[in-house]
User: What shape does this take?
Amino acid sequence: MKLKLVSGADLQVSEAAFGHKFNEALVHQVLTAYRNAGRSGTKAQKSRAEVRGGGRKPHAQKGTGQARAGSSRSPIWVGGGKTFAAKPRDFAQKVNRKMYRGALRAMLSELARTERLLVTDDIPLEAAKTAALARQLREWSLTSVLIVVEATDEKLYLAARNLRHVEVLEVSALNPLALTAYDKVLMTVGAVKRLEERLQ
Assistant: This one.
């Protein structure tokens, strides 16, 4: 199959990487697992057994006009423990390599089908200037875009870091969440070739 370059030419790419059917269930599962992997899961509260104090019965069982109470650390008392105290937990979900790559193939194929995947030979920048990159993106009618490059480009990274709705990623750092966060995805030819090798 062919991808359209912003210059107007065509780039021949592998059907295996960019011609897959969209699998919504798989993409949803992989996205959920990816987001869950980023959760710290460190929330913690104390149960009544863990709150300090409360060993002595706060007042007599009868005759005080108060409700019967055995501990001042009961969950219904101010300063007491939580009834169902939250504990640290791991939210990670297992997603094997085949599923992860399958989801990436499906997402890239859908981007190509809906013409949201653009390819360029290069993003020429003489210096790390935000204005220069913003001007170039306006020429290509790109306002919300993920730029995927083959290798680290410091000038491009520095030029893009102060632009809203613009992110620069290397192919090795490409992930499902980033692919869904922007209206368009702009890749260099080198990045496309690296992705083809990775997704074979």
